[in-house]
């Protein structure tokens, strides 16, 4: 038997519903939202002594169940279908003497003004508001006006809805403009998603007297997992919050049915502040053989390590899932603005939510393991937080790395997944004459990071490659002569120019930094200092190079660009596009000595743009070497003006070994975790 309408508009037709209920018969029709699901919200707003009007009651059991459990008894049900009113009177009989069924059109009700404390609508608004045509909206306005008329001040209009965007927007705008308090509840699901994937919502519109001239609106949302409402600043934001929850429900439904071909990312927000608390990535691994014990696991990324390749990239997370041996792995990144009560606290907080992301076929009552690197949630200490007019909001934080090492990092919050600068921390050496700590004295807490900067260590792989590029200088002997002049554009935490200053004892380093805040950060938090051989110029790199080209050509042995772009819409985050335009590169070539080297940190995800940059570089610098950084987007380009100095990777490796031996000065330790020769032997000539 065909019971569905020919088109959505028929949902608003009295003739359709009359035909529908005659054909369906007495079987109850619960379109969505059963009483057990709705009960927890309804009992907050329906009191036993309230006079309740149910509009468009149909043959739903909702009124009967509310009556039978004692929620309220004085209930009037109205509908435009004579057939359904007749059915419901027969079904109720004399069992519920205080409840009545009346044939009535809610657009033109016979009740006196302010007659009810509650008007209950289960799906009726959704059935009428099928489109945004002028006639439909006029009908809805009439419906709302009648509901407003029959409700007392302080009364509640409770509307059960799937919250389609145009339906929610209309209801929120109408009643908020009338001065009513608008609150949206998400109804807890029963778990049966066979009929409707989208969650059910209840709009709670509380009537207040409209104050002339007042523009204040009270708009709130109550997610299903909490009772405390969250205040929304506008109707648009409230509609967007509902839409977010609908998208999440659709996502969970899809993930419960099929493996995801691409990694899915979502944020779970703190209920108090609304800020992201957890960032989740769902990773499916079809290469892992299925078994009952390896269906699903949760991996907590230790604080501060979310930027590492293994956790911060799609390929890294894919390898993590394969090595962990689970068909579906959900990685969880922790946010620096939040406080966490250890692994057990996180597990208790997330266990219910992550089960909504479970894969198809997960056995009931299956224990889902929570994993982590090192078995804990890591350590993150924000040492400094500020805002720069040029770089925006930034933080300096200490994090515990893999093992016992601590690192200090500079993060620009506009691009919080990228470490701008990094330095390794080490325990401070005792001052001359200072006694060593006695064994029985209290040791520092393992969660307390050391304070001194380890200047012998370059954390960034691209910085190591840039230092190695200095091997291209000079003739047969790679060591510089009486002096070495280096220009570094982009200070950051200062680790790159500081390393060159400390290990190339004949080097005179000029640093150009556009943001004075970064000089303060480097000095106070990363151990940077100026001196006879180190000078910082607060200037735009473009202006500085142009001025030097006009006043002092052929001045530098090496020029290094390590400067990020603030424009995140361009497919190149380092350097800014203006730094690789031909007229400017010609100025760079002008201030470079004949046998000097221009070293550029290039981070470009746009393949076409990268080819254009390389072509422009070749026009100015005929000799180009490239060193790609494994697991990163960075590529280090070594550019020279003359083809005469061309060397193959083996020659570069030999020069690097000679330079490295000379740089390992007594009393100036060199970290053994990297070797210049290894870096340069991976260089390719473009």
Please characterize this protein's 3D structure.
The chain is an alpha/beta fold. The protein has a nine-stranded mixed sheet, sandwiched between helices. A hairpin with an 8-residue loop joins β17 and β18. The termini are far apart. Mean pLDDT is 83; it is low at 1-13 and 436-447.
Straight-line N-to-C gap? 72 Å
Unreliable segments of 5+ consecutive residues: 1-13, 436-447
The mean pLDDT is 83
Structural class: alpha/beta
Helix/strand layout:
Elements: H1 14-24, H2 35-45, E1 52-55, H3 62-68, E2 75-79, H4 82-92, E3 99-103, E4 116-122, H5 124-128, H6 134-150, E5 151-161, H7 165-177, E6 181-186, E7 201-206, E8 219-222, E9 230-232, H8 235-257, E10 264-269, E11 276-284, E12 296-300, H9 309-312, H10 314-324, E13 328-334, H11 342-354, E14 370-372, E15 380-388, E16 392-400, E17 406-412, E18 421-426, E19 452-453, H12 461-468, E20 484-489, H13 495-503, E21 507-513, H14 516-525, E22 534-538, H15 541-551, E23 556-561, E24 572-574, H16 582-591, E25 592-604, H17 607-620, E26 623-628, E27 635-640, H18 649-663, H19 676-680, E28 684-685
Parallel strand pairs: 1-2, 1-4, 2-3, 4-5, 6-8, 12-13, 12-14, 20-21, 20-23, 21-22, 23-25
Antiparallel strand pairs: 5-7, 6-7, 8-9, 10-11, 11-13, 15-16, 16-17, 17-18, 18-19, 24-25, 25-27, 26-27, 26-28
Helix pairs in contact: 7-8, 15-16, 16-17
């Amino acid at each position: 038997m065909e019971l569905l309408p020919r088109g959505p508009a028929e949902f608003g037709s009295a003739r359709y519903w009359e035909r529908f209920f005659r054909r369906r018969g007495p079987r109850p029709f619960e379109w969505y939202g059963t009483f057990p699901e709705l009960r927890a919200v309804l009992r907050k707003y329906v009191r036993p002594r309230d006079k309740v009007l149910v509009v468009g009651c149909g043959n739903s059991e909702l009124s009967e169940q509310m009556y039978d459990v004692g929620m309220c008894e004085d209930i009037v049900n109205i509908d435009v279908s004579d057939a359904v009113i007749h059915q419901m009177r027969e079904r109720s009989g004399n069992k519920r003497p205080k409840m009545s069924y009346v044939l009535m059109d809610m657009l033109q009700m016979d009740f006196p003004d302010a007659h009810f404390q509650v008007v209950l609508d289960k799906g009726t608004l959704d059935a009428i508001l099928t489109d945004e045509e002028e006639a439909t909206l006029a009908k809805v306005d009439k419906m709302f006006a009648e509901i407003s008329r029959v409700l007392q001040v302080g009364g509640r209009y409770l509307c059960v809805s799937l919250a389609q965007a145009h339906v929610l927007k209309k209801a929120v705008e109408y009643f908020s403009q009338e001065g009513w308090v608008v609150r949206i509840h998400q109804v807890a699901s029963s778990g049966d998603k066979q009929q409707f994937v989208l969650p059910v919502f209840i709009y709670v519109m509380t009537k207040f007297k409209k104050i002339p001239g007042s523009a204040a609106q009270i708009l709130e949302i109550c997610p299903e997992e909490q009772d405390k409402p969250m205040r929304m600043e506008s109707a648009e934001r409230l509609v967007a919050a509902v839409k977010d929850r609908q998208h999440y429900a659709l996502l969970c439904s899809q993930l419960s049915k099929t493996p995801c071909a691409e990694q899915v990312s979502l944020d779970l927000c703190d209920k108090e502040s609304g800020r992201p608390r957890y960032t989740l990535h769902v990773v499916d691994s079809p290469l892992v053989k299925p078994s009952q014990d390896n269906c699903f696991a949760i991996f907590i990324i230790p604080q501060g390590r979310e930027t590492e390749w293994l956790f911060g990239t799609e390929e890294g997370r894919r390898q993590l899932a394969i090595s962990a041996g689970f068909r579906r792995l959900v990685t969880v990144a922790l946010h620096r603005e939040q406080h966490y009560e250890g692994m057990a606290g996180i597990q208790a907080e997330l266990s219910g939510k992550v089960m909504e992301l479970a894969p198809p076929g997960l056995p009931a009552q299956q224990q889902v393991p929570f994993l982590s690197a090192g078995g804990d949630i890591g350590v993150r200490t924000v040492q400094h937080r500020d805002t720069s007019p040029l770089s925006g909001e930034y933080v300096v934080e200490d994090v515990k790395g893999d093992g016992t090492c601590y690192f200090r990092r500079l993060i620009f919050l506009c691009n919080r997944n990228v470490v701008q600068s990094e330095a390794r921390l080490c325990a401070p050496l005792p001052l001359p004459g200072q006694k060593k700590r006695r064994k029985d004295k209290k040791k520092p807490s393992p969660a307390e990071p050391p304070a001194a900067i380890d200047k012998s260590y370059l954390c960034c792989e691209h910085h190591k490659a840039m230092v190695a590029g200095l091997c291209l200088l000079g003739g047969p002997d790679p060591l510089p002569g009486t002096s070495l002049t280096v220009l570094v554009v982009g200070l950051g935490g200062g680790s790159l120019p500081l390393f060159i200053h400390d290990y190339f004892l004949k080097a005179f380093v000029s640093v150009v930094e556009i943001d004075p805040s970064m000089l303060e950060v480097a000095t106070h938090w990363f151990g940077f200092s100026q001196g006879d051989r180190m000078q910082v110029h607060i200037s735009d790199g473009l202006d500085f190079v142009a001025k030097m080209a006009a006043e002092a050509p052929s001045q530098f042995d090496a020029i290094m660009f390590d400067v990020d772009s603030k424009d995140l819409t361009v497919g190149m985050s380092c350097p800014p596009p203006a730094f690789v335009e031909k007229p400017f590169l010609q100025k760079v070539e002008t201030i470079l000595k004949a046998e000097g080297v221009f070293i550029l940190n290039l981070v470009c995800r746009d393949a076409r743009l990268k080819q254009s940059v390389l072509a422009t570089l070749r026009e100015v610098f005929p000799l180009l070497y490239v060193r790609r950084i494994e697991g990163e987007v960075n590529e280090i380009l070594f550019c020279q003006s003359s083809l005469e100095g061309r060397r193959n990777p083996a020659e570069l490796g030999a020069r690097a070994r000679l330079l490295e031996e000379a740089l390992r000065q007594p009393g100036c330790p060199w970290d053994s975790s990297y070797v210049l020769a290894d870096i340069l032997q991976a260089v390719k000539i473009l």
